[in-house]
């Protein structure tokens, strides 16, 4: 698209598929930066990307002058990495370094032409053309040809390995490999370097309009709460703001301070919470942590006694829930599993859906709490029923979000505008808050955590385990689980679940 002749040192906006236009400058290519080996009939320039300290070959029609398009492109993305890059280029403008020495254009052209010729079968059959461009003695030709063959074989082998790893080969051929160059990349083949946006602090004392409209009548019972994570914090906030008496405990005590200021009591151990409370809720990260909370040192069982209630809100499997239930009831306590459907935002707004099973009297005693933290609560019968229902719903959600990620990746690869995809999706029968929210997170590319990716992958794993026990095939869910696992390995476990797009796209 650009008709401007690009010169070394020119400041530009460079566009790679899957990313907003990024500030950079035309630069000398590093020695280990791979050239675009297959001729495309289009010219390309080496671009240094500000904020990432990386280089890439970008086709000239995807490069725009920096100053001319600054106002338009500087608003294209709001991610932390992008803002850092914009600051870096402005600092460069304010204090530019000495000019670079240009690369010998004739030598570069000869090398590029030779690279193109050696990868083209037709040109291998016509050695005369090579002789016209580069004159060499027979010994030099022999040495060069043998080296080219070994280089080509190595390149082909590397290409096969990249494909087997599931890496996008078009990305690898367009810029330096970070493993070789040691460069940090956020927008090229190492999107895992994208920093997770800081989670804004929770205003514990803010009473939401939703909670005001519910007009909750608080129970006279004293409630304990174990775990002040991404979901637990929002739940406890609404319990306190609806007038409930709450005793809190968290592994990192710093998280308790704001809740204590808002009226909560703090206990030193989980067993202390059980001792002081009539009913205790637990909301931690995964099944093993939930079991440790009950069976571990200073755990729930040490102070569990007759008529005390324990409500497990952690996303767990039915077997784990039954193990905990047996231990609690053996001590004379009452047990209820209360699985939650919703995200961080819904927890803070008091709009969760609670799926409960177990002791019906305990379910009734918790009604004022469920009213404060959610919009609906369901009693599903015996212990294990709620856990199974939650995993079924999580399976559907995980597959749907992975589908959105793949659709957005395909649209971008096909040259479609992702913004247009979302706008049209919202007008179709596919439109729903979840898909719209995750689609917008993909479009912005920052993935602020509303529902952690690692929690979704955990639930998919538990769903597949349940399918194994029941001999129920789950091929689509199994495939989606692999995509989430890979996204975790890339470093996106604590990002929002929409970060699964990174694996779908790259």
Please give the structural blueprint.
Layout: E1 11-14, E2 22-26, E3 44-49, E4 54-59, E5 63-65, H1 66-73, H2 80-94, H3 105-118, H4 121-124, H5 127-133, H6 138-164, H7 169-172, H8 178-181, H9 209-214, E6 222-226, H10 232-241, E7 245-249, H11 257-261, E8 265-266, H12 270-276, E9 279-282, H13 287-295, E10 309-312, H14 318-330, E11 334-341, H15 344-349, E12 352-358, H16 360-365, H17 367-373, E13 374-379, H18 385-413, H19 418-425, H20 433-444, H21 453-469, H22 475-492, H23 500-505
Please give the CATH architecture of the largest domain.
Roll
Low-confidence residue ranges? 102-135, 147-193
Shape type: elongated
CATH fold field value of the largest domain: SH3 type barrels
Summarize model confidence as the mean pLDDT: 82
SS elements, strand count: 13
Beta percentage is: 5-15%
Q: Note the gap between the termini.
A: 25 Å
The CATH class of the largest domain, by name, is Mainly Beta
Subunit arrangement of the protein: single chain
């Amino acid at each position: 698209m650009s008709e401007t002749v690009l010169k070394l040192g020119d400041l530009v906006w460079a566009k790679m598929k899957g990313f907003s236009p990024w500030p950079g400058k035309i630069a000398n290519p590093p020695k280990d930066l791979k050239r675009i080996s297959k001729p495309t009939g289009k010219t390309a320039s080496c671009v240094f990307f500000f904020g990432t300290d990386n280089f890439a070959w970008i086709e000239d029609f995807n490069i725009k002058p920096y100053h001319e398009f600054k106002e338009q492109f500087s608003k294209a993305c709001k991610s932390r990495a992008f803002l850092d890059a914009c600051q870096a280029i402005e600092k460069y403008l304010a204090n530019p370094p000495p000019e670079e020495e240009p690369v010998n254009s004739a030598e570069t052209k000869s090398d590029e032409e030779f690279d193109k010729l050696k990868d083209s079968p037709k040109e291998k059959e016509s050695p005369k053309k090579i002789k016209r461009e580069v004159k060499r003695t027979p010994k030099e030709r022999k040495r060069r040809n043998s080296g080219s063959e070994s280089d080509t074989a190595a390149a082909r082998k590397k290409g096969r390995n990249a494909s087997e790893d599931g890496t996008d080969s078009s990305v690898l051929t367009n810029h330096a490999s970070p493993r070789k160059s040691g460069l940090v990349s956020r927008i090229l083949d190492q999107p895992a370097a994208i920093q997770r946006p800081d989670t804004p602090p929770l205003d514990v004392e803010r009473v939401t309009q939703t909670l005001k409209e519910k007009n909750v009548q608080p129970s006279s019972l004293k409630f304990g709460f174990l775990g002040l994570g991404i979901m637990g914090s929002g739940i406890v906030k609404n319990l306190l703001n609806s007038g409930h008496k709450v005793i809190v405990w968290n592994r990192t005590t710093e998280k308790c301070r704001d809740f204590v200021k808002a009226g909560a009591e703090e206990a030193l151990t989980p067993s202390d919470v059980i001792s002081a409370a009539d009913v205790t809720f637990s909301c931690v990260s995964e099944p093993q942590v939930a079991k440790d909370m009950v069976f571990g040192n200073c755990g729930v069982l040490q102070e569990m006694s007759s008529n005390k209630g324990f409500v497990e809100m952690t996303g767990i499997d039915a077997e784990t829930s039954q193990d905990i239930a047996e231990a609690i009831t053996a001590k004379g306590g009452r047990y209820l599993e209360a699985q939650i459907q919703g995200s961080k935002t819904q927890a803070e707004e008091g709009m969760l859906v609670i799926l409960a099973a177990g002791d019906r009297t305990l379910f009734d005693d918790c009604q004022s709490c469920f009213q404060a933290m959610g919009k609906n609560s369901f009693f599903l019968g015996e212990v294990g029923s709620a856990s199974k229902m939650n995993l079924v719903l999580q399976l559907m959600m995980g597959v749907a979000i992975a589908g959105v990620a793949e659709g957005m990746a395909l649209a971008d690869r096909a040259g479609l505008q992702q913004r247009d995809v979302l706008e049209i999706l919202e007008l179709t029968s596919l439109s729903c808050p979840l898909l719209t929210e995750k689609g917008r997170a993909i479009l912005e590319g920052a993935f602020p955590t509303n529902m952690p990716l690692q929690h979704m992958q955990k639930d998919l794993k538990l769903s597949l385990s349940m399918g194994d026990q029941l001999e129920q095939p789950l091929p689509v869910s199994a495939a989606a689980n692999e995509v989430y696992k890979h996204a975790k390995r890339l470093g996106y476990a604590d990002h929002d679940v929409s970060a699964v797009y990174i694996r779908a796209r790259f």
